[in-house]
Design a protein that fits this description.
With 229 residues, the protein is α/β, with parallel strands linked by helices. The chain has two domains: 138 residues, Nucleotidyltransferase, domain 5 (2-Layer Sandwich); 83 residues, Nucleotidyltransferase, domain 5, CATH 3.30.420.200. Helix content is 34%, strand content 29%. It contains seven helices and eleven strands. Strands 6, 7, 8, 9, 10 and 11 form a six-stranded mixed sheet that branches. The protein has a five-stranded mixed sheet with strand order 3-2-1-4-5, sandwiched between helices. Helix 1 packs across helix 2. The protein is globular, with a radius of gyration of 17 Å. The N and C termini lie far apart (51 Å).
């Protein structure tokens, strides 16, 4: 089953395509935040070089956030439009889950931390399980001090991942180590989304797209500014 993965919730645009033989192609664009202009050419590029016709795509995975509001909307809208046109299921997955997945062999508590700007972060805690990771807390938005307090309350060493952990590295508590990974990748998303479809966790066809919605955790900046005024 050919699966396309779209990740635009953070500063990096990431597109992957995978099948029965694993990952077939991956494109990641790290410069700039012109997600709308970058995404469609990236999809065309990865399909062409993986020698996979768009018509062969049988499922689509998309990062639903939290993260950059505009990037999230671009990715989700594109995934839904393609799913409708191809009549294939679309699978939404959180950027926090995608960040934690590559650390699934760690013995420590994993914290996915995404830069929310305005001195805040989006974060959630995970632990490794056979075959993946299990979320230990609901995703939330808060200050770096809130995050440090949650780590302290757990009383365990934490391995933090994400651009929020990198940005505020010097402000994190002593029990927190920062991993190298800064952004979620479509390479993880393509395999996780494919597995969910094969397990039957999502309905077949493109009619399930309405269930895929952005995970904001915080009102968009435009709404906050309007309310303040």
């Amino acid at each position: 089953m050919i699966t396309l993965a779209i990740e635009t919730a953070t500063a990096v645009v990431s597109v992957a395509i995978g099948g029965d033989d694993g990952l077939l192609g991956l494109v990641e664009v790290t410069q700039g935040r012109r997600h709308a202009e970058t995404l469609t050419p990236a999809i065309e590029f990865v399909c062409r070089h993986a020698q996979v016709p768009v018509a062969d795509i049988a499922a689509i995975g998309v990062d639903i956030g939290p993260g950059l509001f505009t990037g999230m909307r671009v990715g989700i809208a594109t995934a839904k439009a393609m799913a409708f046109a191809l009549d294939v299921p679309v699978v939404g997955m959180s950027s926090l889950d995608l960040l934690a997945h590559p650390l699934r062999h760690s013995s420590r508590v994993i914290a996915s931390v995404i830069d929310a700007r305005k001195g805040e972060v989006f974060y959630a805690f995970f632990r490794a399980t056979p075959g993946g990771v299990q979320r230990l807390s609901e995703p939330r938005a808060g200050s770096v001090e809130d995050f440090n307090a949650d780590v302290l309350a757990r009383g365990q060493d934490v391995l933090a991942v994400g651009d929020g952990a990198h940005r505020y590295r010097d402000d994190l508590g002593r029990s927190i180590e920062v991993a190298d990974l800064a952004h979620p990748s479509a390479a993880a998303l393509v395999m996780l989304a494919r597995a969910r479809v094969l397990r039957g966790d999502v309905s077949a066809g493109g009619d399930n797209s309405n269930s895929v919605q952005p995970l904001y955790l915080r009102a968009p900046d435009a709404q906050i500014n309007w309310t303040s005024r």
